[in-house]
Amino acid sequence: MTPLPTTGSTLPGLFESVPASHTAIVLPEQSIRISYGQLQLQVEAVAEALSACGIRRGDRVGMALPNGLPAIVSLLAAAMAGTAAPLNPAYKEDEFLFYLDDTNARILLLPPDGAADRADAARRAAGDRVRVIAVAMSNAGEVSLSGVTDRRAIDLPSVDDVALVLHTSGSTGRPKRVPLAHKNLSISARNVARSYALTADDVSLCVMPLFHVHGLVASTLATLATGGTVVVPAKFNPLSFWRVARDYGVTWYSAVPTLHQLLLARAASMPGKPPGTERLRFIRSCSASLAPQVMHELEAAFGAPVLEAYGMTEAAHQMASNPLPPEERKPGSVGRGTHVEISIMDANGRHLGIGEHGEVVIRGPNVIGGYENNPEANAASFTDGWFHTGDQGYLDADSYLTLVGRIKELINRGGEKISPREVDEVLLAHPAIAEAVCFGVPHPTWGEEVAAAVVLRDKATEGDLLSYCRERLADYKRPKQIHITETIPRTATGKIQRRLVAEAYAHKEH
User: Fold this and answer.
1) Is residue 319 part of a domain?
2) CB contact set of 253 (below 8 Å; sequence gap of 6+)
3) CATH number of the domain bearing residue 475
4) Residue 377's domain spans which residues?
5) pTM exceeds 0.90 for this model
6) What residues have CB less than 8 Å from 350, skipping those under 6 apart?
7) CA distance 132 to 109
8) pLDDT tier at 216 (50, 70, 90 boundaries)?
9) How sure is the predictor about 172, in pLDDT bands with cuts at 50, 70 and 90?
10) 218 neighbors 318 (Cβ within 8 angstroms)
11) Does residue 353 sit in the same domain as residue 396?
12) For strand 433-443 and strand 447-456, is the pairing parallel, antiparallel, or unpaired?
């Protein structure tokens, strides 16, 4: 086994040795190209402006910025001067107020067109404690802090300083703060780069949000670490995706299954392979489970291998991935550990053998040492240096990991444990079903019963779908009710939250 990397760099140090003339960032809407030299200068200038505003090591810089150069420059600069705390720009006011207060931010960076409304919200959350600053970008692609002309040299961060604070998704309770050190992030970015043999010739199309570890580490930092180019549209658009890929010679992209399915739906109306797939080396899927059926459809439509990976915020993103050809990629599996140790543990802390089901635990220098100011969560999340992911799974004889589901999402029907993902995959194999999610609902006799919600691409009745499941699933596993709907609730990054779906349909059960 290749030795685990134990040293990292600061985030700007990831690309300090790349030739200054190479293109780092492309903004397709404005046809702007930013070189590595320009990126380095802009990050340093904004970091010094933040320092002039009083930001020191450890101080939190909140930001609610859409995808683009201002988001990348601001995040890297905030990580240099203090600690970056990106927020989802689409948060509702109550969510925004909670996260802003929870991060204890001293400065909040906003786009010019959203500064007034968010400034009012910031004042309600923290009074005068938070200074709101608009982040501007010139027509030439130069990012600056509006109204801040002073500069102050920064105290350079160490690899152990916290670069980034993110929150867990909060699907099982109050969101927890995840402090990611420069070392965690830089090691994880290089792990991703090694996994896919990224080089300076690679061009990544970033469609995941940059307030999320998936878009930040996989699509962006891993590409910058190897001197490649990151194409950053303002937002994901399935109608223009392949035109952008063609125009800029994209060689790979990473996304959640939701976005892959949107691209498949768009491709179905196009004759032949979409233009723009010619240079694709691979397609990466992460942050939610990818049904084998969808994987096969993607490969057939776009002519590139689809590599499912496994990541989470607490590990600075990637933990495992299926490898590039000619090595085997296994549909339904998230692959082998990528310079991260993976084991399966039972409830008593015993490591299990090949094929045995238990909780997935991980260990490596990309993994956080603990949640911030949360001793109770830390006590529950670590055993002898192993981090408990909360996912149930098993390892095969080749060390490929298969995830069964979130432990808290397993359906317990009269003592029989049912993996929602297994039912999802059966439903998704039906030709009329575009999306599916299985979940448990309360039952007076069994404790829980199996139900599902589906989005259709062709006509089908609930009776048709129930009959289909009856032929393919044991009685205790098959849904007793299937809700046909137009949309399935998801998080901002495309994850299905089964708890929310279950709550939405609980009152509709027979």
Assistant:
1) no
2) 204, 205, 206, 207, 219, 245, 283, 284
3) 3.30.300.30
4) 333-406
5) no
6) none
7) 6
8) very high
9) very low
10) yes
11) yes
12) antiparallel
Rounded-to-integer distance, Cα 471 and Cα 8, Å: 52
CA nearest 481: which of 443, 445, 444, 447?
443
488 contact partners, CB below 8 Å, separation of at least 6: 435, 437, 453, 455, 496, 501
Residue 490's pLDDT band (cuts 50, 70, 90): confident
Query: What residue type is 448 in one-letter code?
Result: E
Task: Residue 100: name the closest of 125, 123, 75 by CA.
Answer: 125
220 and 337, same domain (yes or no): no
Name the nearest CA neighbour of 156 among 5, 9, 369, 370. Answer: 9
Q: Do 415 and 390 share a structural domain?
A: no
Copy the structure tokens of residue 272: 């032949």
The conformation of residue 378, written as its DSSP 8-state character, comes to: H
Determine the pLDDT at residue 7: 59
What integer is the mean pLDDT of 290-317?
A: 95
Outline where DSSP puts E strands in 304-432. 306-312, 317-321, 336-337, 341-345, 358-363, 382-383, 386-395, 401-406, 411-413, 416-418
In whole angstroms, give the CA distance from residue 15 to residue 215: 17
| Cα angle 419-425-430, degrees, rounded to a multiple of 5 | 140
CA distances 1 to 4, 57, 317, 405, Å, are 9, 37, 21, 27
Domain membership of residue 148 (yes or no) is yes
Residue whose tokens read 């500069």 = 151
More confident residue, 133 or 114: 133
Q: What is the pLDDT of residues 234-267, one digit of tens each?
A: 999 999 999 999 999 999 999 988 899 889 989 9
Separation of alpha carbons 475 and 245, rounded Å: 46
User: Do 80 and 43 contact (CB within 8 A), yes or no?
Assistant: yes
**Tokens standing for residue 242:** 């392949």
Q: Residues 399, 417: one domain?
A: no
Task: Report strand pairing: 336-337 vs 317-321.
Answer: antiparallel
Q: Is 217 part of any domain?
A: yes
CA–CA distance from 262 to each of 137, 244, 258, 266, 429 (Å)?
A: 31, 16, 6, 6, 17
Q: Give the residue-averaged pLDDT of 314-326.
A: 97
Instruction: State residue 121's pLDDT score.
Output: 67
